[in-house]
Here is the input.
Amino acid sequence: MRLKRRTQLCAFVLGCAAVALCVGVLFDAERATAAITEEERAIRRAALDYIEAQHKVDGARMERSVHPLLVKRAVYANRKSGKQFLLDTTSERMIQLAETYNRAGDKFPKKPKKEVIIFDRVDSAASVKLIADEWIDYMHLAKLNGQWKVVNVLWQYHDVKRHR
Here is the structure.
């Protein structure tokens, strides 16, 4: 009889341990999902700050979204020769652009398109596609000191003829 009770007790303890383990795994998975969602939200916010700074004529917002060493590039073509080249833009120029480009309020529709697609994210690096009304930005973001910043942008107008 003692052996049967001991066996039942062991089975009960093992069952409780299994349930506790499953609950712990589910709790950790839920926390991990929340962390991923928070990171994705922060990445999305940096990309949206970048485009919304241009919509809302807000240089401070642009400065908050980009790293000082930002390099933004587009492939252009010489109108006469057709030879292609890269046109670079810096963070300083982007901040100036945000402060002036839409000052008259006529550069974007009333409800501008701003779709953010996060391609990939690992620890402190992310790859994002931002689709705006007239162009697409392919962005690399870096997490520095707890903040996501745009560090690289390769962009193109939807109408590639505008790159001449």
